[in-house]
User: What shape does this take?
Amino acid sequence: MMLRKTLKVIWASPNTLLGSLLGLVGILFGGKAQFARGAFEYHSGLVAWLLRRFPNNVCAMTLGHSIIGIDKESLEAARDHEHVHVRQYERWGLFFIPAYFLSSAYMKYKGKNPYYDNHFEVEAYRIAAVNLRRNSTNSKEARCENLGLIDGEANES
Ligand SMILES: [Zn+2]
Assistant: This one.
């Protein structure tokens, strides 16, 4: 079992490296780092600035075993969701990012929401069945909140 886990961590490591490079550069611009549940987490400063510019209320993003979030509270709110993505990276490795974008492109082509209908997001929202929303449209103040169990309105965008 230990070997299996190690292989998954190695398989996902190019993505982890990318996320941690981003996180470490973020630290030079006011960011902070922590380690939780087997993943590196980076928040505040540059990574927060970056995430607040993403559409769809993104408040955290996973790259392998690295997770970037707006702030400590956002990372806590989103942790269960982001760890579904960690498991997806362990399965898909280098193919995760292309597969993610292909899924989004396909959903857009079908007239669906490229984020909420993305195969990987559907799985993450199903397993970690809570709504995550940024609580403000003000890009300086927005952070992530866990709005509780999904009540069928998660697909409204
Ligand atoms: Zn997600």
